[in-house]
Amino acid sequence: MRPTRRAVVAVLAAVQLALAGTAWVDLVRRPARLVRGPKWIWALVIAVNVVGPLWYYRWGRIPAPIDDAAAPGPGARTPAATSAGSHPEGLPAPGGTPPSVTATTPE
Fold first, then answer.
1. Mean pLDDT over residues 7-32, rounded?
2. Residues 6 or more apart in contact with residue 57 via CB below 8 angstroms
3. If exposure means fewest CB atoms within 10 Å of the residue's CB, which of 7, 69, 83, 96 is most exposed?
4. CB-based contacts of 26, cutoff 8 Å, min separation 6
5. Radius of gyration of the chain, Cα coordinates, nearest whole angstrom
6. Residue 102 pLDDT exceeds 70
7. Torsion over CA: 10, 14, 16, 17 (sign)
8. Total count of domains within the chain
């Protein structure tokens, strides 16, 4: 096999493995109610060359509903943290004054 063809095959193999790996991880982490059909069938479909993962991403997944009442995730800015001017862990908020620095006037 010529070096150019060998490089093309290597790139396509890497793309195939990356697509399949990310699709399998998504399939394992996704609740069964958000997958169209049995998960074991999609696990087999994902193994079909490059088209399997693409089929899974296009037709196998049901979009997760957006829950407006969900609690903010880690690192989310809350009104209490921003209105007080400091981070809940004692770090300064963007544009805020660090807790250890106090305003002084020169005498």
1. 95
2. 23, 26
3. 69
4. 56, 57, 61
5. 25
6. no
7. positive
8. 1
Name the one residue in this structure whose structure tokens are 């004054």.
97
Residues 98 and 29: their CA atoms lie apart, in Å, by 40
Q: pTM for this one?
A: 0.57
Model pLDDT, residue 74: 60
Of 29 and 83, more confident: 29
Please check whether residue 65 is in contact with residue 35, taking contact to mean a CB–CB distance below 8 angstroms.
Answer: no
Domain assignment present for residue 70? The answer is no
Q: Determine the Cα–Cα distance for residues 7 and 13; give it in Å rounded to an integer.
A: 10
Name the pLDDT band for 70 (thresholds 50, 70, 90): low
Residue 8 domain flag = yes
Strand partners, 92: 86
